[in-house]
Amino acid sequence: MTNPEQHTTVASTDFKVGQFAMHGQVKLTTDGNILLYESTGPFNIETIKAFTAARASIHLKLDASKPYAAIVHWRNSALMPLDAFAAYEAGYVKFLRENQCPHALAWASGPDVEGMDFMIARFTKVFDEHGINFKCFATTAEARSWVDSYNINSAS
Questions:
Q1: Could you tell me if residue 148 is inside a domain?
Q2: Which of 15, 26, 28, 43 is the most exposed place for a label (fewest CB within 10 A)?
Q3: What does 37-105 look like in DSSP terms, one character per residue?
């Protein structure tokens, strides 16, 4: 269990980017050095750009001297157009150049999330290219159990 003071929340809606309205939302919460994402799609490029800013902002709340992990809980849809995916990939590559890679990245989604299999294939390619330890699960409990096996929030 982590200290409640170690919890910070930031959302893509906290950042205004572009001239068009955002479609979809990503909420990020810290739990020690574990990032918890609530991703509700479908997403457009404005949401992805705002998410990129939110991720950079919340990453500053992590203890950079320790490993971190992330759990993404997908809701409704994982779909995004090609321009949004390209923006995600460019933002993630830049993020990885400036920060350490996550020790573990877990995705959780039920069978009702639109486009999940399609998007897993696209994202897996990006994660594999950068050596990300990535795994998908049917529930957030399974994802959390896998992430917890890396002892990210253990006292050292």
A1: no
A2: 15
A3: EEEES---HHHHHHHHHHHHHHHTTS-TTS--EEEEEEESB----HHHHHHHHHHHHHHHHHSPPPSEE
Angle among Cα 7, 11, 16 to the nearest 5 degrees reads 145
Give the whole-angstrom CA distance, residue 23 versus residue 124: 23
The two structure tokens encoding residue 111? 């069978």
Task: Please give the single-letter amino acid code of residue 14.
Answer: D
Q: Give the CATH number of the domain where residue 106 resides.
A: 3.30.750
The 10s digit of each residue's pLDDT in 54-63 is 999 999 999 9
Sheet holding 104-108, edge to edge: 9-11, 25-31, 34-40, 69-75, 104-108, 134-137
Q: What is the phi/psi pair of residue 118, to 5°?
A: -60, -45
Residues β-bridged to residue 136: 107
**Residue 93 covered by a domain:** yes
Res. 155 pLDDT band, cuts 50 70 90: low
Q: Is position 59 within any domain?
A: yes
Local structure of 156: helix, strand or coil = coil
Residues in contact with 5: Cβ distance below 8 Å, sequence separation at least 6, in sequence order: none
pTM for the full model?
A: 0.91
Terminal-residue alpha carbon distance, the chain? 14
